[in-house]
Design goal:
The chain is an alpha/beta fold and 442 residues long. The protein is built from 14 helices and 19 strands. A seven-stranded mixed beta sheet has the order 1-9-8-7-4-2-3, sandwiched between helices. The chain has a three-stranded parallel beta sheet with strand order 10-13-16, with helices on both faces. Strands 17-18-19 form a three-stranded parallel beta sheet, covered by helices on one side.
Length: 442
């Protein structure tokens, strides 16, 4: 039974009222494409499940990574299956959900700003079973778990907050909010219901994201993911394979496997005589690569500690595995890497890259953080040196920002904003040069 809290709010009805749901987007200008052959795109196709002919409308605004985009897509499938329509504007919706990211301060600040802007959508009603109530405005995802009731205190117009483990319960919570006028918070960390991944709603007709695990157990000192998404939870390998098969049957032949650290994937289950069998990421990738009709499979992200020669050999052998590896290194300084709790030295990282280039010969990309606490000029120059040596096809380069609850948040944020900006620009300029150089070789 779900552990959630209802908060009655009879006194401030006008503050809580607001508009409803909008499109599945990653930014304000993104449009949801219509792919009538891929499941059911509710933004462009009429629904027929409701005998009354009335279909509640949902708008979902997505901030953050590919995992969040897949979560929003899966949640949209739940709504469509229950007779809702997905719409492209918040003003047109009966329910507005903001799917959020807490990994970087910038994404969090953008989400808070967007949530605040929804206060102006006031006094609109939508009806479920002849009950009029304020429209539902919900904060979901990582930031919901990170900030919890603090959002309610600052934004009384928000009447639903759900963490990443509660997505499958959101349609039921919306009904409860609308019928009882209550406010609901559910931040419980739990295994997801597989129903979330079983529906046919797709945004992209060419490529599908398939989640293989949620959470992370590495506890890098700067990273909030274990605190907001929980420890690593691998999905059952057969459920993953079945989801890929269903995508192929629907005409989606390109698959991206998603996880915080995909090569940390280990799924254990009992076989005869109660013996344990373990499916590793390489095992899973083999199973998926073997599927008839699969055009291409790639994956994101990889942990340098577990990127093995066995994985690289499989990538080289299989023509339908994309020859690209996203492998964050974060810093070129061993001192900083130790402070980050990354679990490897930069020499180990470079040795892994060397083996990948020798065996696979494919392209590379990375995540990099500049301005981590106590990062000195020599540390930054070591990072710059790695970028020059490896020659990434592209890199995501971030300025460090403290994340509440992490070990690094207790460190003095000693690098000035000026130096963070300077180092960030210097690395960006360097990476642009390398990217252009590699493009010319193609």
């Amino acid at each position: 039974m779900s552990k959630h809290k209802d908060i009655n709010n009879n006194a401030s009805r006008d503050d809580i009222g607001s508009n409803a749901l909008g499109p599945l987007t990653q930014n304000a200008s993104a449009q949801m494409p219509s792919h009538p052959n891929i499941g059911l795109n509710a933004a462009t196709q009429p629904l027929t499940r409701s005998a009354s002919g009335w279909h509640p409308k949902v708008f979902i605004k997505t901030f953050g990574c590919q995992m969040n985009s897949r979560d929003s897509e899966a949640l949209s499938g739940l709504f469509v299956d229950r007779g809702y329509r997905i719409v492209e504007k918040a003003d047109d919706a009966d329910v507005i959900l903001v799917n959020t990211c807490s990994v970087r301060a910038h994404a969090e600040n953008r989400a808070i700003s967007f949530l605040g802007s929804l206060k102006s959508i006031q006094n609109s009603k939508f009806k479920i079973k002849n009950c009029q109530s304020p429209k539902v405005i919900g904060l979901i995802g990582c930031m919901a778990r990170n900030l919890g009731e603090e959002i309610y205190k600052k934004m009384p117009h928000v009447n639903l907050i759900c963490g990443p483990g509660c997505l499958d319960k959101i349609p039921d919570y919306i009904k409860k909010v609308s019928e009882k006028g209550s406010r609901i918070i559910d931040l419980e960390d739990r295994d997801r219901n597989e129903e979330l991944y079983s529906l046919s709603f797709k945004v992209d007709s060419d490529r599908a994201g398939v989640v293989i695990s949620t959470g992370c157990s590495n506890y890098c000192s700067y990273c909030v993911v274990p605190y907001v998404r929980g420890n690593l939870r691998p999905r059952n390998h057969q459920n993953i394979v079945d989801e890929v098969k269903n995508n192929i049957k629907a005409g989606v032949g390109k698959i991206t496997l998603l996880g915080q650290n995909v090569n940390d994937y280990h799924y254990q289950f009992k076989i005869q005589n109660s013996k344990l069998k373990i499916i590793t990421f390489v095992d899973l990738l083999k199973m998926i690569s073997d599927l008839e009709g699969l055009k291409e499979v790639d994956f994101i992200s990889s942990n340098p500690r577990n990127s093995s020669v066995e994985l690289f050999k499989l990538m080289a052998e299989r023509s339908n595995i994309k020859k690209h590896l996203h492998i964050p290194f974060q810093s070129g300084s061993d001192r900083v890497l130790k402070s980050m709790n990354r679990g490897y030295a930069i020499a180990d990282y470079l040795d892994t890259i060397k083996k990948y280039k020798e065996i696979v010969g494919g392209s590379l990309s990375a995540d990099i953080i500049v301005g981590f606490p106590n990062e000195e000029e020599d540390d930054f120059l070591a990072t710059k040196s790695v970028v020059e040596k490896v020659e990434f096809k592209y890199a995501y380069i971030f300025k460090y920002s403290p994340r509440l609850g992490t070990a690094a948040a207790n460190m003095v944020d000693s690098v000035s904003t000026e130096y963070k900006e300077k180092r960030h620009k210097e690395l960006l300029d360097l990476q642009k040069q390398i990217s252009r150089k590699l493009q010319k070789k193609c």
